[in-house]
Amino acid sequence: MHPVITLLTDFGHQDPFVGTMKGVILSIVPNVEIVDLTHQISPGDVHAGAFALHTCYHYFPENTIHVIVIDPGVGSNRQALLVKTERYYFIAPDNSVLEWIFHEHPDAQVYCLNRPEYFLEVSHTFHGRDIFAPVAAHLARGIQVDDLGEKCTQFIKGDLGTVKTLGKALHGLIIYIDRFGNAVTNIHSSQIKDVSITNALIKGNRIDSFCSYYSEQTAGESLMLVGSHGYLEIAVNRGSAQENLGLQTGDQVVVHWA
Amino acid sequence: MHPVITLLTDFGHQDPFVGTMKGVILSIVPNVEIVDLTHQISPGDVHAGAFALHTCYHYFPENTIHVIVIDPGVGSNRQALLVKTERYYFIAPDNSVLEWIFHEHPDAQVYCLNRPEYFLEVSHTFHGRDIFAPVAAHLARGIQVDDLGEKCTQFIKGDLGTVKTLGKALHGLIIYIDRFGNAVTNIHSSQIKDVSITNALIKGNRIDSFCSYYSEQTAGESLMLVGSHGYLEIAVNRGSAQENLGLQTGDQVVVHWA
Amino acid sequence: MHPVITLLTDFGHQDPFVGTMKGVILSIVPNVEIVDLTHQISPGDVHAGAFALHTCYHYFPENTIHVIVIDPGVGSNRQALLVKTERYYFIAPDNSVLEWIFHEHPDAQVYCLNRPEYFLEVSHTFHGRDIFAPVAAHLARGIQVDDLGEKCTQFIKGDLGTVKTLGKALHGLIIYIDRFGNAVTNIHSSQIKDVSITNALIKGNRIDSFCSYYSEQTAGESLMLVGSHGYLEIAVNRGSAQENLGLQTGDQVVVHWA
Description:
Helix content of chain A: 10-25%
CATH class of the largest domain in chain A: Alpha Beta
Largest sheet of chain A: 8 strands, antiparallel
Radius of gyration of chain A: 20 Å
Number of domains of chain A: 2
Low-confidence stretches of chain A: none
Shape of chain A: elongated
Mean pLDDT of chain A: 94
Order of helices and strands of chain A: EHEHEEEHEHHEEEEEEEEHE
CATH architecture of the largest domain in chain A: 3-Layer(aba) Sandwich
Structural class of chain A: alpha+beta
Oligomer: homotrimer
CATH topology of the largest domain in chain A: Rossmann fold
Distance between the termini of chain A: 53 Å
């Protein structure tokens, strides 16, 4: 059975950066399945990348190697990490992009990549090609985690932002906006499962409809629902909540119940 | 030999939706070739998705499983279909996105997906992940069509729009606009093969040049030609007919002959 | 071991053109690894495509087949080429898109594709599907180069643009702009390795900082550095040099040293 390597970056599709990483991987380990998660994270937006990873990494086969390269500090002395959880591996710069992984797996084993014999010659600006891709490939061909790095205790765990309860209301944040313009909050379905939501206030808009699916609402009208990732989101049926309501990540949302 | 699964969606590349579907597939059937057809269909535009599929599905090896997820009605009670033609399988929501397939294969066998043991836990908003991807994977690993669903006679066949002949003119529609801004009509080359085209009228523009290839026309000037898909299209050499002539899908076109 | 085929085009991701090429390839040679380099080259920009290829082709395993389809002259009588260097194969239209390959490999063997039995039926507008993809697939399944075409001596070598030294300054050009808005010049690191750069002038902007990596500069400020491809580039840390400084390909740059 092939090992699987996934790639999640902010490299976009315009340049051959992602293709280059695949060439590096295939030169080291020919029999590997490489899957793109997304390469369209806004340049440098580690929190959006962290959430995108959180929504999908656990749908992959056991032992999948997830490589995340959102790396605004490339070339500086930030560390490069290899993280092992019960089922998966994660290879990424040390900059919060694994904040959801550390949140869900507080016992994850964390290694710093310090074995240049498993790197290409290291440039100052493209560690995806020179460090992250080759280390993933060597891991996929069977090199042990302890041979690729050393145990590390100082690293950036990240901060997911807290949801506060004030009276009969939850105060949260927009943490991610998807391609359809749906605005995802940091309020998880488990936090609202026992209450009856009446409305949400966000940037001067009041949303009164809590739906199960988008087309339950009239086209062009706004709604709340629990997205496929398990978080409350603000949407517009057959429209864009981002555009229609002027939303962006970081916006505060207040959700009231009866 | 690997089975091949193709994916055609309106999910875009910004979010890891497509990557998630691939994770689901690889968790069920590791040895499969997954090919992206396109994920940039305008959100919810089932007719554009239907035409895109029509132009390419038959270039794939026999037994390829084509998965199409353009699904504005996700979560409502629309059916999920599995369609078998002589050479291929198609898995899609019941909403016209297979209209060209039904048009070309009136004898296709149509099944409704009703066996939740082959689904993931089903969310209200992401059946690509929860229904379409896992069913495709189970089909690829050898589960029989009759085990995945039951025969279905009530489903949406779709409507391709008719081309009318009035005197020495064909009246058709723009049905698809490609990345280069070429505007594809629903007039097939077989409908004009015996006549000598003189001009086309579209949105107040008159196009007088009928060419074999784009660069036969002066750069920046408009032309007609038969595209690689076999349909008449309106183009601008080294330019965009969509932008230069203000075209969009649904626009009427009248083609005259001598 | 799988053969590897890479695809570099200006087809974008909106239409299923690239997916169609993959279907053609997999119908001819099922066990092949297909890697996308980029499909977002500006329509018809053979020089941008040529540079993108130059930055990445050598990261792939030996015998990789690189297929490049930026083909504004499709349908005209331009030739189709198959080029063999010591380690790789290149299949492309005869239009400068291999200019960096010919520059680096003056002894490359060049063949014209003239064996229609290895093509699909040839349309006027989509030779990626009808010629380039099937020839790549036949090469991957073991057909010899001499069987696919005949030796060719008349072909377009291309022109990379020269860098001139005038006093203590190099005069070069912007040849590529990447997704981050970094503007790549045609000045190679080897041309500036023995001097101490003081500043660069470009479109009325003066850049005084020569850095090793982007985040060495204050956010929002411009800098020069040697990019991961080995060429001098103009960048803005956490910003876009293209937007902030109004740069485009073809712009002249003058780099001074002390």
